[in-house]
Structures
1.
Amino acid sequence: MLIIYNIPVHLFPGFQRNKSTFKKYCNDNLRKKNMNFMTNNIWLILFVAWGIPLGFYRSKFRKLVYQTDSWLINIKPVFMKEIKGLTKNIFPGNLSYRKFRNFYRIYLGIYILLFFLYMNLNAKSQTIKSKNMNVIETGSLVPSFTLKDQNGSDFNIESVKGKKNLVIYFYPKDDSPGCTKEACSFRDQFEVFKKEDALVIGISGQSVKSHFDFAKKHRLNYTLLSDEGNKVRKLFGVPTSLLGLLPGRVTYIVNKEGKVVFVFNSQLNAQKHIDEALRILKDIK
C-alpha cells in the first residue's frame, strides 16, 4: 500500500502509472532537504567531526603527562599537571612528549576555533531568523491557531481569547525532568491561576497520545496542545536554546484583550516560569 502525505498530486497526472517520476520527485526533495541541512549546519558538523578523535588524543596526552599506561587516568579528577604539560615543557628531554604536545595544542586550538565559529554564526543565524519571522513579544496580539489537545479534541485559541487571561507556555518535551517539574508546578498552582481568572495552556511538539500519557501520569489538570511540526512554535517565533539543540522553554502571559503583556524565556529555571506568571497576573486588572 502506498500512503502519500501532502504530495502535490496535480503535478503528476497519472502518477500511479508513472512510479519512476514520482520516485524521482521524492528523491529530489529528500536530496534538497539533506543539502539544506548540510549547508545550514556545516560548522556544527565540522565541530562534531573534529571532536570525535579528541577523546583519544586527550587520553594519549594524559598518559604521557602522568607517565602511565592505565586507562584509569582518563577518569581521575586531576587536571593541573595536564594543563601545565600543555602550556609548558615539563619533560625537556622527552622528544615523544614534545612532539605530541605540539600536535595536541594545534588540534585542540582548531577545535576551540570551530566551537567559537559555530557559536558566533549560530547567534547571527538566530538573529536573522528572528528578523525574518513574526516574533511574538510584549505588546503583540496573540496569533490565531488551532491544535489538538491531549484528548484529541480541537482547541481554538479564539474560543478563550478575550474571555480569560492566558498563560501559554512552550516546553521542549513530555516527561523530561525539567518539563515534568514545570508541568507539575503549574498543576499545583492551578487554583491560584484560576483565582486570577487565568487559563494555563502547555504546548510542545509531541503527539496527542504522548500528551495524554504525560497528563495522566502526572495528573495534569489543564490543557496540553500537540504542536507536531512546530507550526505554532514557529508562529510565535519561540527561540531555540543550548546551541540550537533544544526547543525553547518560553511562557507568554496574555491579558483579556488578547495582548501579550509579558514573555519569560528560561530553559534551565523551570520553576521561575510559574513564579513570574503569577507575579504578572496579580498586576493585571
2.
Amino acid sequence: MTATILVVDDELDLEALFLQKFRRQIRDGLVSFMFAHDGLEALQSIANNPHVDLVVSDINMPRMDGLSLLAKLQEAEDKKSTIIVSAYGDMSNIRSAMNRGAFDFITKPIDFADLETTIQKTIRHIEVLREAKRRQAEAERAHASLSRYFSPELAKRLAAAGNGDDMEVKWRDVSIIFTDITGFTSLVEAAAPEVLAELLNEYVGGLTDVVFAHDGTVAKVIGDAIQVLFNAPGDQPDYATRAVACALELDLWAEAFCRRWKAKGVNFGATRIGVHAGPALVGNFGGSRFFDYTAYGDTINTAARLEAANKALGTRVCVSAAVANAAKNFRGRPVGDLMLRGRSEPLRAYEPLSEASFEAPATSQYGEAFAKLEAGDGNAMPAFAALVGSVRARDRNFWTTLGPAGRRASPSPLRDAGFERTRGERPRLRRATRCDLLSG
C-alpha cells in the first residue's frame, strides 16, 4: 500500500525538503506526497483526491489556519488522521489541536527522523481503522444476507462469528415445520396481480415474523409454502418444544389473516402445518456463489407429508410422535397411525391443542374414545357417536374421519396426502380417528 500524505504549510521551500528527505520511501512506493499552502487549498485538494490517507499540517497559515482545518476534517464522514506541526513550546495550540482530534504532533524545526516515525505510526493506525471498517462492512453484508433466514439476534450472532462453521453441511437433529395454503392455486388464477402481491407479501412476512419470534430458521419460501428449522444452525435443546409453540402460533396468525382478508372479499384458504423431528443433512447448499441454507432427508419429507395429511384428517396442524414425545408438556390428541408414502412403519400423529382446548371436557372424552378404538374395543364407535352428539347441539362445524375400525375414509384425499394403499382399495390409515370439537 502506498500512503498518500497531504502536507499543508505556507513555507514554499518545505515541499522540496519533504521530497528530498523521503526520496527513498517515495522511490520504494511506500509514500507519495501532495502539497497545499493553507487550509482552504487543503480542503479543495482532499475533495479532488479523496484517497489522501493522512494530513501533516502547520498551525499558522493565511486564509484558514491549521486548527480550523482540523475542525473541518473532523466534521467530514471520512475523518483524515492529522499530524499537527507547531512551534516548539506552543503548548496552548498543541493542546487545542489534540482536543480537536489530531492524531499526533511534532514541533518546529522539524526533526525528519521523528516525523518519519510519527508518519509510520499514523499509517499503522489508519490500517487498523480501515481493517475494522472492512470487517464491519463485511459483517453488515453478512447480517443482511443471514437476516433472510434467521431471527435478528441469531443473524447478528452468526455474522459476528464470521467463521462459517455453523453454515457447513452436517447431520443435525432438527425439528422441521412445513406450511401450505389450501386452494392457493385457484386463488392465484382468480386474483388480480396487485391483490395477490399484497396478500402474499403480508402472509409470508407475517409467518416469518412468528418464526423469528421463536428463533426459528426460515429455510425456504416457495410461493405460499415455507419450510422452518429448529436446532439449526445453532443448538436449541428445546427444539421440539419451540416447534410446537411456533406451529400453534402460526395457526393462530394464519386464521386471523384469513378473517381479515375475507372481510375484504378475498377467500383465503386455511394454512396446513406439518411438524416432524429427526436427523437431517443441514447446511449451505448454494456452493461458492449462492447462499442456500436448507435441509434434506427423510425427516424433511415426513414433515411435508404430515402437512398434506391434514387434508385427509380434517386438522390444520399435524405433528409426529417424535415431536410430541420430545416437546415439554405437550398438549394434544392423537389422530391415528398414518402409513405415509416411503415409510415401512406407521407413524403416530397428533393434533397439538391450546391449553384451553386441551383442558376442555370434550378432549378427555375424545382420549377415552380413541383409547377404546386403539384397543379394538367394540364400544369405541358408540363412544365417538356420543361425543359427536354432545357437540352437535353446540356447533354444526364438525365432522369425523374414521379409519378401518369405522367407516372407511375417502381414498382420494388420502392419496393426495401421500398415503399408500394395501389390499386393494383400502387406504392404509390405521386407527385414524378425528373429531373436530370446539372447546368452551
3.
Amino acid sequence: MTTELYLLAVLLALLLGLAAGKAWERYKLRDGRWIDRRRLRETPHYMLGLNFLVDNQVDQAIEELGQATSLDTDALEVRMILGNLYRQKGQVGRAVNVHQALLQRPDLTELEQAYVLLCLGLDFRHGGFVDRALEAFQEVLRLDPRNRYALVNLQKLYEDQHQWAEALRVREQVAKIDGGQHPDNQQILGFLRNEIGHEQQRADDPAAVRTFQAAIDTDAHTVPAHLNLGDVREGRGDLAGAVEAWERLVAAVPEQAHFAFDRLERAYRTMGAPHRFVELCHRLIDRELQGWRPRLALSRHLAAAGQHRAAFDQLLDALPHHPHALAIHQQIWEALEALAFDPALIRRYVELTREAVFYLDPHICRRCRYRSTEPLWHCPQCHEWNTFVEERLAPAKDTAAAETMEAP
C-alpha cells in the first residue's frame, strides 16, 4: 500500500510539473499580470502579416502586423519587425520612433535591449545619422560583445567613412569570433589591408609595400594588392620587382589576370622581351580554352606589331566565348579596317554575330544584382567585397560553322 501511494504521489507531481510547464509556455508574468503568449499568434492579422512578409508585400505586411500589435501591445518581437519594415520602406523616422519606444520598456532583458538597439542602429545608418548609428552599435557590443551582426555593421560604417584601420580592427574581431568558420573573413581582411596600403601609397609612405604584402599574405586572391604592390615597385625604379608582383597575380588568380595585362605588356616591352607577353597569353589560353580576355589582349599586341590578320583570327576565336563583349567587336572593326575590309572576313564576322546582343554593363554583383560597366572590388549598393562577376548570355555560333563562309 505504501508503494502504491508513493507511485501515485510521483505521478501527481509529474502531472503538476507538466501543467506548470505548459502554463509557463503559454503565459508570462509582466507588471504583476499574466500575459497570454499565444494570443497574438492566434490572431489572423499576425498570420497574414507573416505571409505578406514572406511574399515581400511590405505594405500589406505593415498593415496586418500593425493590427496585430494593436491587439497585443506587449508583442516585442512583432514591434521590432514592424519598425524594420518601416525602415525598409524608407520611413526611417517611424522606424526610429518604434524602436526608441521599445527601449523605454523597463522590463527588457539585456539580450532584448541589445537586439532593439541593433535595430535602432540600422535605422540611424539607413538615415545617414552616422554618429548615432556608431553609438547604437557600440552600446549593443557593450551588452553583447560577441554580437556578430553589430560588429559587421560597425565595420561597414567605418568603411563608409573610409576609416580603414578601424574597419580592419572590427573585422579582426569578427574573424576571431568565427574561429575560421567563415572563409570570407580572410578575403575581407585582405581588401581592407589593401585600402590602408592604398592610402599610404597616395601619401608616399614607405610602409605601403609592407601593407600590400600583408594583404597578399592574408589572402593571395586580393587582386588590387598585387597590382598596387607592382605599381609602387615600378614607381621606385624596381621594374623586375613590379613584374614579379604582377606575375604572382597571374599565377594566384589566373581568371583575373587581365587586370595586369597592360602593366605586364608595357614592362616586358621596356625590358626588351615583348615575346614574354605573347607566351603569357598563350599559357592562359591553353589553361582556359573558353577564356576570351587573353585572346583579346594577344590580338591587340599582334595588331600593334602590324600582324593584323593574326590579330583578327584571335578575335574570331574569342568571339564565340563572349559574343556580347563590346570590346571584342570594336577591336574586330579596327582589324577589318587595317585589312581593307576584306569581304570574306566580314562575312565570317557577320555569321558569328548574327544573334549576338550587346550591352554596356556586363558586370553584376552576386549579392544585390547591382550592375556596373566595370568590375568593382567593393559594391556601392550592398557594400560587400569582391562580389562582382561578368554576366554572359547564350554563346554564339562556333567558329567552325562560320569558317565555311570564308572564300577559298
4.
Amino acid sequence: MLKWDHFSESLLVRSVYLITLPIVLVQVVGIIIFFELHWDLVLKRSAQSIVNDIKILELTKNTEEIDKFANTLQIIKTDRKQINEIKPISNWIFKKRINQSLSQIPGQFTASQNDNFYIVSNILDEDYYYLIPKKRIETKTVLGFFLWTIAISIILSIISYFFIKKQIQPLKRLGIITKSFGRGIETPNLKPSGSSEVRGLINDFNNMQNNIKSTFENQRNMLAGISHDLKTPLTRINLMIEDLNNEEIKSAISKNISEMNIMLNHYLDFIKNEKNENLDEVITDILIYEAANNYQNISFLSNESKKVLIRKNQVKRVLINVLDNANKFAKNIYLNSTFQNDSWLIIIEARLNDKSNKPSIILIIDFGEIIGHKKSSAQLTNHYKPEDLIGKQVAAVTNFPPKQIGKMISEVLVLGFPDEKNNPILIMPTKKINNGGKLF
C-alpha cells in the first residue's frame, strides 16, 4: 500500500513543491494586492457615487422632478410592494463600503439586495426604496481574473510536473541498474541522458561498473590459472609417493592431495559454471538432499519444500563447503531448512561440546522473531542425547550476561530441576506454545 510519507519523500514530488509553491504564493499575493489596492478602491468609489446620487434624490424627493433625476442617475424609486426576496448583501467588501458611505446621508439608511438590484432604504421612512441595478456595480472581469489566475497556476504546475518527471527518469533508470548490479545481475551500460549533472553521474557509474567487472574478470582468470597450474605438481607428487614404503605416510599425503584436488575442482567449477550464472528456479528440499547426499551422519530436522529463484551452483557449493567442515569436526550433523518471512534459513541445531571440562551439549534455541536464535551449553548428557532435544521446547533465562564455557560463548541459561544425583532435568512445556513466550 502506498503511504503518503513514502510518496512525499520522492524527488519528483519535492521538486514540484519547489516550483508550485512559489507560483501559488505569487498568485495569492497578487490577489491580495488586487483586492487591497484596486478592487476595494473601485467598490469604495462606486459606493460613494451611489450615495451622492441618493443625496440628490433625497433633496428632490418631494418634487415632481425626482423621477426625471432617478432615470438620469439609473436609480429606480419604488415602494415595498414592488420588492421581493430581500436579503443581505453578499459582497462583503461592497457591503462595508456602502454602509460607510450611507452614514453621510441624514437618516438611518441601510443597504440590501435581491437577485437584480441593490436596495437602499431609510429605516425612518419606509414608504419608498431606491433600487440600483447590479450591473452598475458588478463586472465579469473579476471572475475572469480569478479564473485566469487559477488556470495559470494549474497550467504551470502541470508543465513543471512533466518537465521534472522527464528529468528524473534517468535517475530512476540508474537506480534500477544499480540495484540489479548490486545483486550480481549482469547489467548493460546505461545511456547518458538528462541534465549535465545526471549524465556525469551515469558516466561515472558506467566507468565504475566496467572497472568492477574487469577486476572480477582478472581475478577469475588468475584463479583459473593458479588452479590449473597447481594440478601439475599435485599429479607429480602423487606419482612420487608411489615409491614410499611407509604406508601410513603415503596414505596421509595421498589424503591431503585428494583434498587439495577437491578444492581446486571447486574453484574450477566456480570459474566454469558461475562466471555468468543466471538465477534459476529450484525446489529447496531437492537442492538440500542433493547437497547432503554424500554425508552418512546427517539428520534432517526439517526440510521445507518451496520454489525459490537463486543461483543454484553458488548456493550448492556453499552448502557442500559447510557440510564438509561439519563432517570433519562433528560426529552428527543436524540440518534444519525452513522459511521465515520469505527468508530461507538453514540451521545446525545441536552437537556434542567436547571442548568443555565436563561433557555438555550445545543447544541452538529459537526464541521467536524478537530475540531470535541463541546458543547455550548445558551439562545434559546424563539424561539426554543431542538427537533427543531436537524440536523440543525448553525454558531459559535470556537477560543474563553471556558466559564462556570451554571455547564457546553461552548466551542464555537453560532452566531445569536437579535429580537425586544433582544432574539437571530440563523444564519443558507439556503442550506446544509459541517460541519466545515468557514464563510466569
